[in-house]
Amino acid sequence: MNIKKKLIIIGVCFVIIIMVLTANIIRRIIADRDNKQEDNVLAENVISRAEAYRLLSYLEYDKAKRESLPMGITYADKDMSDWYDRYVNAIWRMGLIDENITVSPKEALTLGECKFLIDKLITKKPILQGVYSGISFDFLKAESEMLIPQFLELYNAILDLLPEDEKIVKDEILFVLDREIAEDGKDRIVTDQGKYFYVNSMDYEKFYNPEADRPYDRLTGEEVLRRFNNKGIEVLACKNEIIYIKNIYTGKITIKNVWIKQGKELKIDTFINGVHKEFQAQFKLSQDIEEIVGDIAIENGNVVGISIKPDIITGKVLLSGEDFIEIEGYGKIPLDDDYKIYKIYGELSMEQTSGILVGYDTTDFVVSEGKISAALIKESIKAERIRVLLHTTGFKDIYHKQVEIGATSDYVVRTGESETRYSASETLTLEPGDKMLSLGRVIIEPVSEEGKIKLLSIERSTGTPKYRGRIEITQEDKGLLIVNELPLEEYLYAVIPSEMPTYYGLEPLKVQAVCARSYAYRHLLANSLSAYGAHVDDSVAYQVYNNIEENEESILAVKETYGKVVEYNGDVVAAYYFSTSCGHTTDVEYVWPNGKDLPFLKGRLLSAEDESESVISNQKTNIYSDLTNEDNFRTFILDKDYNTYDSDFAWYRWQVTINADDIKNNINDKLSARYKANPDFIQTLVSNKPTDKNAVFESMPVETVGDILDISVAKRGTGGIIYELIIQGTERTIKVQTEYNIRALLAPVNATVYRQDEKGINNLTLLPSAFFFIEQNKENGKLKSITLTGGGYGHGVGLSQNGVKSLADAGKKYDEIISYFYRGTNIGFIYE
Question: Buried-most residue among 88, 214, 715, 785 (CB within 10 A)?
């Protein structure tokens, strides 16, 4: 073979070798790339600890409860704080993790850790014992990172085992209309089913839909609208919060009871849950429609069907229940499951409350298939009439076993469509089961304009009460309910003398009239007793009404202030008042649960020495301006020389000594009920000492603390009011919040309270106020009794009625007095 051929063969072999090597390198690169991609995919599909904790927290806590939990957990990393803190805290409180823990948002959850969590959960909820059966994976590789699909499978298996009455996590289908920023600054999406928070929630569609082409991620801002606007979404939700999105829903969605502003040809302009929304119809409308309620069916973003609801009825609302409305002339009509309320006068809006203001006929009702589909509020409320729920004798109950009626003039009784006239000398007695009541609501009205209805079966402080307006009686399962409907101004005639002695004089009575009108107006619009067909009741829960009869002075005070109310920035305020101050009022947030800071209800020193030139007096004023300090408060209460506007009244100062056993018995009687009334404000110590900064208290059912070991003030608010009290017992230590709970649990039921006029008062079911300091009386280290020295009578917010008397005696007019107690307010008018 010649050299040329040899060289050719060598060259060919070299080329082949190069090609083989190149091919191997390329295959290796491709393999490495594929392996890296697979590793990346696996890494992306691993669930983090933080995300697992987030999902598990929903098994017990919704958004509101979770965010109200005090941060009891102590993180190993003291500076750590991130979006998952509240979820980790919730999981700790569920007893699933230890106290000292640091959680990175990207730290993976292992299979072993997951099983540890679920095993603890099973211990707490035995009903979940079968959760592992049927799971498509096992926990053998405990150190392996857990994949999101695995955790979601397990999570949904847990949800399937939970009883419906314990489950706060639900599958829902929502149609996305818009996005908004809530008052707390967090994003919400507006849907056909309401408004849902979604911050921290995930889009997990790729794990439910194999055809989904986008990666999973956390939902944020405008991205939500870009992806889901005008679409149906399948979600897992916990009340008003989306936990995660499962899929895009492609089926037909019917949105019920929509306000259709206009529909013409292919365009439908609607108003849904506060959102103005224009849709395209798939087919041209057969007729134009305008300002009507109807159901609309949507598919692929287009309207494919409309069912309008043209039938409307109107009448006075007598009662607004949870699932029905009683309308005069129509009786009780059930509400549709998707019942809506629209305000159609002025700027179109939706009312979020489920109730319609009783006693007025300003609303039209859309009725379909025997149910109310929507309420259309067509004009503003003039608030000229008020409805009062009447208690039995002694204000013990709202349900009456018997009602005996009389009158000062002839009167008529209406039941159904029948009407019977009675003379003034005739009486009518009704009991549950009476044939007259079987026909529905019984309405009694005097024939004469000056006539009054007498309730002979009730006693008040001045004897048999007489009522202006009309009386309505309905039969309920627990007995008979009585409602008195009358003009608001005439209602005030009988509120003023029941709330303030009329001998105080006209100017104080005018102050009381303006405040009482403001208070009544606010509660009338709040409609909080609509389930009973009323706006307020006649007890101290609202304003005492007709316990003492109206008189010339009270009528004159109301007439001279006709329609006048206390306003702040154009709104009628809740003009709270009480009997006697300790010399200082307090802020509203220290008295009522979740009370908001209101500028016109800020506590103030009611000093009669503000303008004194005395150096000593001015020094005291400076000290007494801060009564949150324990020493300052004690000095103030004991100071007999410093004058305030309430100094001369009997309840200005008081003292009581209560036996420790009496306190224990009283707590045992009331503790469970106070906890049930508001669990957040009776909390039990679960770790550390109560005096430690890191002491952890939790809301949990409690019926006793055992023998009393110690009672101490934890926190004072403006004016020295106690709003947190620690009670240590042999069985439990509790933290009591709100002045009412404190006054109830330390009530001197078997002790005598001595006022500064040295008169002893017995049988009080509440302490006079929460403005007091505590002295403990012990023998051989054991608590025998406590002595409470305090001041004032009532809650301490707003206006002191006895302080009003002093200011009026000093020559102040009613409007000046009102502006003194409610700073920054002015006098407004509620009638046109």
Answer: 88
464-487 average pLDDT score = 96
Residue 364 has pLDDT above 70, yes or no: yes
Quick one: CA dihedral 434, 440, 446, 451, positive or negative?
Answer: positive
Q: Are strands 241-249 and 232-238 parallel, antiparallel or unpaired?
A: antiparallel
CATH architecture of structural domain 169-249: Beta Barrel (2.40)
Q: Could you tell me the pTM of the whole model? A: 0.79
How many Å apart are CA 11 and CA 21, to the nearest integer? 15
Question: Which is higher by pLDDT, 742 or 619?
Answer: 742
Residue 739 and residue 792: Cα distance in Å, rounded? 13
Determine contact, residues 493/553, Cβ cutoff 8 Å. no
Token representation of residue 666 = 């009283």
SS (HEC) of 644-678: ECCCCCHHHCEEEEEEHHHHHHHHHHHHHHHHHHC
Alpha-carbon dihedral 740, 745, 751, 752, rounded to 10 degrees: -10
Query: Which three-class secondary structure state does DSSP give residue 475?
Result: strand
Helix (H, G, I), strand (E, B) or coil at 308: strand
Secondary structure E strands in 310-432: 312-314, 317-320, 324-327, 331-343, 349-350, 363-368, 371-377, 385-389, 403-407, 411-415, 418-422, 428-430
Which residues have C-beta within 8 Å of that of residue 677, sequence separation ≥ 6? none
- Reported in sequence order, the residue ranges of 669-752 that DSSP labels E, i.e. its strands, are 682-687, 696-699, 708-716, 722-729, 733-737
Task: Decide: 407 and 422 in contact? Cβ < 8 Å.
Answer: yes
The encoded tokens of residue 142 equal: 């405990």
Q: What is the 3-state secondary structure (H, E, C) of 445-464?
A: EECCCCCCEEECCCCECCEC
CB neighbour list of residue 701: distance below 8 Å, 6 or more residues apart = 672, 675, 679
N-to-C CA span, the chain: 123
Backbone angles phi, psi at 722, to 5 degrees: -85, 125
Amino acid making up residue 337: D
Identify residue 239 by its one-letter amino acid code. K
What whole-number distance in Å separates Cα of residue 92 and Cα of residue 687? 13
Reported as a single tens digit per residue, the pLDDT across 544-594 is 999 999 999 999 999 999 999 999 999 999 999 999 999 999 999 999 877
* pLDDT greater than 50 at residue 6: yes
Instruction: Give the side-chain half-sphere CA count within 13 A for 114.
Output: 31
Integer CA distances (angstroms), 567 to 26, 558, 667, 829, in order:
81, 18, 40, 9
- Token representation of residue 424: 């003034």
Q: How far apart are CA 376 and CA 345, in angstroms?
A: 9
Per-residue pLDDT band at 25 (split at 50, 70, 90): low
Phi, psi of 382 (to 5 degrees): -85, -10
Inter-CA distances, 796 with 293, 678, 769, Å:
48, 21, 8
Q: Which residue type is seen at 613?
A: E
Phi, psi of 499 (to 5 degrees): -110, -25
**AA identity, residue 696:** V
Count the alpha carbons within 13 Å of 457 in the hemisphere toward its beta carbon: 18
Q: Give the pLDDT band (50/70/90) at residue 162.
A: very high
234 forms beta bridges with 173, 247
**Rounded mean pLDDT, 654-683:** 94
On average, the pLDDT of the chain sits at: 89
Q: What pLDDT sits at residue 32?
A: 46
Q: Name all contacts of 708-714 with Cβ < 8 Å and 24+ positions apart.
A: 708/660, 708/663, 708/664, 708/667, 708/783, 709/783, 710/776, 710/783, 711/663, 711/746, 711/774, 711/776, 711/783, 711/786, 712/774, 713/630, 713/773, 713/774
Determine phi and psi for 183, rounding to 5 degrees. Answer: -60, -30
The stretches of 395-473 forming alpha helices (DSSP H) are 435-438
